[in-house]
Write a structure and sequence with these properties.
Elements (H helix, E strand, L loop, with lengths): L3 H26 L4 H15 L1
Helix pairs in contact: 1-2
Length: 49
């Protein structure tokens, strides 16, 4: 079992990586959704923290 802090850090890294990939794809194909993606990312990061 990993310590809670390590598991949380790994989870955050995975979450940020996934969000970055999703944001890259969304912004590449739907530039009008840029601010929606930014707002969603901020909300998800605030939930994770």
């Amino acid at each position: 079992m990993l310590p809670t802090t390590d598991a949380g850090a790994i989870g955050q890294v995975i979450g940020v990586t996934v969000l970055t990939v999703i944001a890259t794809v969304v912004l590449r194909h739907h530039k009008e959704l840029r601010w929606f993606a930014v707002g969603l990312g901020v909300q998800l990061l605030s939930i994770l923290h």
